[in-house]
Amino acid sequence: MPNLKRQYFNLINLIVLAIISQFFGCASPQPVSGGPQDRTPPKVLSMTPKNLTRNFKDKKIIIEFDEYFKIQNETKEFSISPELEKAPILKIKKKTLEITLPDTLEKNTTYTLNFGKAIADINESNVIKNLSYVFSTGNEIDSLSLSGKVSNALTGELEKEVTVFILPAERDSLFGKKRPSIYTLTDSSGNFKLNNLRGGTYKVYALKEATGGGDKIYQQTSDEVGFIKEPIDINKNIDSISLKVFKENAPDFRVIERKINTDGIISLTFSQQLKKPSITITEPASVDVGKLVLFNLTNDTAKVWVNDLSFDSIKVAIKDDGKLLQTINLNRAKKDSYTRDVTPVDNTNNSKLNPFQTYTLTFPLPITAADASKITLLDDSIKRTNFVLIKDSTSFLKYKITFPWKIKRSYDLKFAPGAFTGLFNTKNKEFSKKFTLEPTENYGTRALTVQVPDTAKSYIVEFINEKKQAVKSFIISKKTRVVLANFPAGKYFVRVIYDENRNGIWDTGNVKYGIQPEKIWYSPEEQSLRPNWEVENTLIIPLPGN
């Protein structure tokens, strides 16, 4: 006969285990694995008391969501305005958020709880953006609003997820360790709106924080910022506010990065763009002899090659226009060794050579000697010897190869070991380059007769590509003909920088001194280049807008 007593106890044990499993499963919701990715943030089902409650007297606010959620970066994201001496306490209870308020609420005051990006689901951390709760301890709720758009000062692109906030005018400045309590985020179209504002005079800012930021405190060295110069008196709803964010130039020069790379190159990065930079190794002076220096286009980074790496330490002086800016020390260990590579890159694009350019090799270190006999050129598999190897007169990193290249031919350049010799007698390993010549009919030319609004001013006229990158620039101050000659067919545009200080570059703003970036105008007309076409028309630069 079956053991009924044993079966009875087994059944009891199963029931107990099921109850325990159910209890722990409910008590600790876990992320769901498998299935399609969840991209939907939690939704608010109810708020108790209701949002926009007047004559508020409750001690707690309950917000119910449709799924389990978490609070992330509470100290950075959550705020209450006006600020309280004792912050509200946030507590999660299953799918509800319980907010306990202190006993220090002012009478006849509108309070706004701003959650920023603090509320997210458990599974995929999808965030509810710009969630807020508003209540008033009096009969009225502040109802003024401020809205507008945020764009990039240089590119004109609308900026998403930029923090826009206001500060009371009596607050000294943007700089400090106190984050704003009245803020919002721009949407995907760069729009923002601050609601339930109390009348008063405010300073308005936009802050685009660098990756890893998020504290809503302006970090001048890494963040982008925009501002309205004069405080705004909010006594009615205000819209059409335009904020342009920019990366502010560092107020003081300093070397922000210094190192000796594994290939022996000394790399320096500066906090400012320099005008006429120079670098001198002052100690030991012998290391300075024969050194080579290369600055980037904006003169805010430099590479230095020296012939002697046997030093323990060196002193490097950085000057601009003859003025000493800073002297730094660089140390190396006696056991440090360096690995160098003499493999160049060429100026082809997708293995196609621009027919209006000379074939050029750019090396990662200065080349001291070249041996053309160790170079083989195959023209449709036929060996050619009538090419010419030329050292570039403007760059110690470049060599050029000239040859009567022709379309519909395949070229294969083979470089034997030792074809090029760099610093420290470093020789290349075997490498090859293959390419074809693009037809000239794939290129076009566009000329513009540019008319300026004021001949006493200076303007920078730039042809830019679809990525808003300048491909050619002209500095003008009067009616001038500019030409974009023999460029690949495609879409191009024109932007004009109103060069107020006539220094030939676009200058960003300065928050401390209330200086806005130099104004930029984008021509609405596309200046495309059609294959094998030459086009000429007129561009009239307007007066700068507000």
UniProtKB/TrEMBL annotation:
> What InterPro entries does UniProt report for this protein, alphabetically?
Carb-bd-like_fold, SbsA_Ig
The lineage's top-level taxon is Bacteria
SUPFAM superfamilies per record: Starch-binding domain-like
Q: Where is the SbsA Ig-like domain?
A: 38-137
Record keywords: Signal
What name does this protein carry? Answer: Ig-like domain-containing protein
Q: What is the lineage of its organism?
A: Bacteria, Pseudomonadati, Bacteroidota, Sphingobacteriia, Sphingobacteriales
